[in-house]
Amino acid sequence: MAERQGSELIIGGEGDDRLYHIGFGRREKVPNNMILVGDPNRVDTVTEFFDNGKVEGAVAHREFVTKWGRYKGMPVAAMGTGIGTDNTEIAIMERMAADEWNPDTQSWGSSVKRTMIRVGTSGSPQKNIPLGSLAIAEHAIGLDNTGLNYLHHPRVEDYADKEFGPFYTPGNRHAKAIFESVRALLGNALFQPYVSTLTPYVAQTIHAQARAHGFPDHEGAGVYSGITTSAPGFFAPQGRSIGRLGNIAIPNLQEKLAEILVPRFAGHGRPPLRALNNEMESSVLGRLNGEILGDNVGAVCLVIANRQEGSFISGEDMQKGIRKAIKVALDTLHSLQ
User: Quick one: which of 67, 108, 63, 106 has its CA closest to 86?
Assistant: First the structure.
């Protein structure tokens, strides 16, 4: 693809509006209801639930795979973003551009509101969250720096909290309390975590759908809503000490995360917020799409590892659990119409 718009937003040449990484543009008319998965191969698992299993369009470019069709008559797309907050940032930024850059007028058009739910796998730092549970992100602790490159306001100085304003969702008391808790627990870490917030009613709807699909509420191998943590890597960034690369910054990271307990403010009447699971994408989804672009965003992850117990789910149970999580997410998208 040839460059257009210089090096800032790389788009195809004359008559071609496809974005450089994701491989599609406005003309493909990719639906605004989306399931995001890290593993590109998992896109095909999502499409199995499409009406009559029919895929109406597909694009594959680099590690980004996107297919779309209908679910219960609702237009819906599935996108494989690849692993990590950096990959996710590319996918969701170019998805925004595909919707809002007008190739005919060579200008930005009106904003488009999307509904996007991440479905993934994760480990849990909590001993009492069994394998096969679903963890729903109300907030995400970003152990990455990707989200911090995007501001809610034009300047850092515009935040009410001049020192730590960009590090948590503006005006959200729970996000601020989570930030203060994780900052105190990590002490003089070599990096500064941030907290993003996903769309509250999307999280609530995912939880309700999970219960409707037979997952017990906050017990056993059930459905849990609270905090996810998003790391920029799988090993040391999640507290894994491996071989000759075993000297890591926070070797007791999982134990520290398990200590996070943030009471909800009056009127919520729900369990305290605690760190439910570790994954690698939701912090950026919450910051960019939820907080800044104003999309409806959610995340539901199957717990496939218990980090305190050192246990890992079987392959068959993992596939069954992923399919259940996908069905919960699709039914959530449908119910939000």
Answer: 63
| Architecture label for domain 1-112 | 3-Layer(aba) Sandwich (3.40)
Whether the CA torsion 149, 153, 154, 155 is positive or negative: it is: negative
**Residue 214 gets which letter from DSSP?**
T
**Alpha-carbon distance 165 to 152, whole Å?**
10
Instruction: Rounding to the nearest 10 degrees, give the CA dihedral for residues 126, 129, 133, 135.
Output: -40
CA distances to 211, 279, 326 from 149, in Å: 36, 20, 30
Band (pLDDT 50/70/90 cuts) for residue 9 is confident
What's domain 119-335's architecture?
3-Layer(aba) Sandwich (3.40)
Q: Model confidence over 163-211: pLDDT tens digits? A: 999 999 999 999 999 999 999 999 877 888 999 999 999 999 999 999 9
Domain ranges for the chain: 1-112, 119-335
